[in-house]
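Figure-free illustration: sequence to structure, shown twice.
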Amino acid sequence: MLVLVSDRFFIGLPEHARIMQVQVPRAEDSADKYILDYVKKEDLVLTKDLSLIEKLLARNIAVINDLAEQYDKDSISARKRRAALNAELRTFSRTEQSASPGASASAKQKEEQKQFLRFVQYLNDWKQEEMRKRG
C-alpha cells in the first residue's frame, strides 16, 4: 500500500486500491506527526525532512529520499552537516540552479528519467528483500 501524507490534496493522482491519500491539517509538523503515529517497522518512508528521518531511524524504520538513497545514522549526520553548510552559504550568496543554464530540455528529461528509474529499481529491490525476510 502506498500512503501519501501531506497537508495538500494530490490532484490528478490515479485512484487505485493500493494508493491512499491522507490529508493532514496545515499545521507545523502535522504530516510528520501522522507518519510517526502510524508507521510500522516493515514500512518504507520517503522524505527529505532531516528531523523526521532522525526520528524514524531511531525507531529502525527504513527511510529513503526522492533519489532512492537510503538513510542511515552516518548518512543523516553527513546530510545535516551539509544542510548547515548550505544554510550558511545562502547567507552570503544565492544558491545556483541545480542544472546548468545551457543544458537542453532533452538532457534534463533524460536525467529525470534516469533518477526515476533508479528510484523504481530501489523500491523493487527493497520490496523483494522484505518478502525474503518474511519467508
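We now fold a second protein in the same way, so the two outputs can be compared directly.
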Amino acid sequence: MGRSIASKGHFAALCCVFLSVVLLASCGGGASSSSLPPTPPPAAPTDLSYSAPPTFVVGTQITPLTPTVTGSVTAYAVSPMLPGGLSLDTSTGAISGTPTVTSTMASYTVTASNSSGSVSATVAITVVAATPSISYGANSFTLTLSAPVQGLAPTNSGGGATTWFINPVLPAGLNFSTTTGAITGVPTAVAAPTTYTVTAQNSGGQDTATLSLRVQSVLLDLRHAQSIALLRLSSSRVLSLDTSNSWILWDYAAAAKVVGARAACWSSNCIGHSLLPVDLEGPTMIAETAAGLEVRASSDGHVLSSIATPVIGPRRALSSLPAQATIPLLLRSRLRVRCRLRSAPRARMSWRRSLSRRVHPQ
C-alpha cells in the first residue's frame, strides 16, 4: 500500500510539470528555433547635396536638378517656396520646371528624411528675364528739318527691357525715351548722317541696334524741269509748282511724291502775273483744271470734290454755280474768288484765294 501511494504522488508531480510547460508555451515563454530577432530601424540619411545650378531664364525650361544622398529617403521638402514655375519632386528630390518670373539669387533649403532622421542641403537659385532682342525695322533714316519724326519706335521680340539708352546724343530737337526706346521730336537743325547705337537692358542682359540718322532741309530734289514758282508747307506735306504749271504734292517726312499733275490756267501767262493755279492749306489742296477746280486730300492726293468753272457774262446770273460753292465776284478788270467747300461729311475746309485775272465775257 505504501508503494501505491508513492506511485500516485510521482504521477501527480509529472502532471504538474507537463501543465507548466504547456502554460509557458502558450504564454510565449521558452525558446523557439523558428523565432527571428526584430528588424533594426534604418539609419538617417546623410550627405545630401545638389550641384551648383546655372542662372535660369524666364520662359526657358530648366535641366532638372537631381540630388545625391547617402541612405534611404522617404520624403523631400523645400523651404521657402521655389520661384514661380519651379517645383520639387517630394519622392526624388529633383527640382524642375519652367520659370515664369524673375528672382534675385536666393537660398532654398531641401530636407531629405526617413523614420530615423533627416539631412538638409542648400540650393542657390537665380532667375533672370530673357535678353531683349530689338529692331527699328531699318538701319538708315532720313529726317526732315521742322517735320515731326514718325515711325522711329523699336520692336522687341525678346524679354522686356527695363532701361534704354542711346549714344551719341541725337540731333537738336530730337528726344530719346529711356523707357520705350522711341525717338520723337522735331529736328531744328540740319545734321549729316551719323551712326547711333541704341541699347536695351534687363536682368538677363542687353541687346543693341545701330541706326544711321540724317536731318535734311525740306526736300533736296523736287524733280521739276522748270524754275519753282510756289512752295507751300503744311503739316507733313509740301506743294511745289514750277513755271510750266506742273505741280507735285510731296510727303516730305518720307521724301516721297504723293501725286502730281499739270494745272490748267485761264491765262496763258498766269505764272508771270502771280495767278497761281494751285494751293495748299492743312489737310486739303486745290488745283485748277480745264473744267474748273479740283479739291484734293493732301494725305494721298485723291479728289474730294470738283467745282465747274462758272461761265460769267453781262447777262449771266450766278444761280448756276454749285450749291457748295459761294463766289462773290468783283467785276471790272480783276476777279476775286472766295470758295467755301464741304467735300465730305467729316471733312470741312475753308479756303480763301484771291485771283487777279482778266475776265473775258462770253
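Summary for the second example: The first strand starts at residue 46 and ends at 49.
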